[in-house]
Design brief:
Chain lengths: 109, 114
């Protein structure tokens, strides 16, 4: 099975940088996924890591350390529209995703 | 990527009745999944929908309560049977298109059981 831990909520300022951490324990590992979910909407895919290191996609970056069971999502130049829930998901056997509780990010002026 | 269409988008049902949710994908996909999301919580996997065979259910979910069909590569249904108010939730369908097996989600079905 899998266990995913991430903070419940975070607050940051518009224009700033925020890092959302995720730790995982898994009996099988096929990648670490990050999704963004606005209230009342479907989760949308942001980033994916299967190897150690940093993946950069515009304002969003994700990092993975398999030896530490640790990942983070980095959001730069925060905008008000980035206020959302960010879901960390670990892929195990059968490519099934186990999600953490989600981190509710609030971006303030 | 894949575009996932799910219907109905929402419904209000009476306890004891059943509701079937449909999920249609715009391209052939390798795997399809059904999730439940309780208000304010994260996603919980219900089952993997297997084409042409019985779905694979996660712990705590059974076929009698959540029968699933997947007659072809692009379509699946989830039925919530003999509903009770505890079944009030958002039900989401997802699909992967191979490669890194990124899951793409439908918009969800918001179910309220009275």
């Amino acid at each position: 099975g899998q266990n995913i831990d991430q903070p419940t909520e975070m607050t940051a300022t518009e224009g700033a940088i925020v890092q959302i951490n995720c730790t995982y324990q898994t009996s099988g590992f096929n990648g670490l996924f990050w999704y963004q979910q606005h209230a009342g909407e479907a989760p949308t895919f942001l980033s994916y890591n299967v190897l150690d290191g940093l993946e950069e996609k515009g304002r969003f970056s994700s990092f993975l350390s398999r030896s530490k069971g640790y990942s983070y999502l980095l959001l730069k130049e925060l905008q008000m529209k980035d206020s959302a829930s960010y879901l960390c998901g670990g892929a195990g056997g059968g490519n099934k995703l186990t999600f953490g509780t989600g981190t509710q990010l609030k971006v303030e002026l | 990527s894949a575009v996932i269409s799910q219907k109905p988008s929402r419904d209000i049902c009476q306890r004891g009745t059943s509701l079937t949710i449909q999920c249609q994908v715009d391209s052939q996909v390798t795997m399809m999944f059904w999730y439940r999301q309780q208000p304010g919580q994260s996603l919980t996997l219900i089952a993997t929908a297997n084409q042409g065979s019985e779905a694979t259910y996660e712990s705590g979910f059974v076929i009698d309560k959540f029968p699933i069909s997947r007659p072809n590569l692009t379509f699946s249904t989830l039925t919530v049977s003999n509903m009770s108010p505890e079944d009030s939730s958002i039900y989401l369908c997802s699909a992967t298109t191979g490669g890194p097996n990124i899951q793409y989600f439908g918009a969800g079905t918001r179910l309220s059981v009275l």
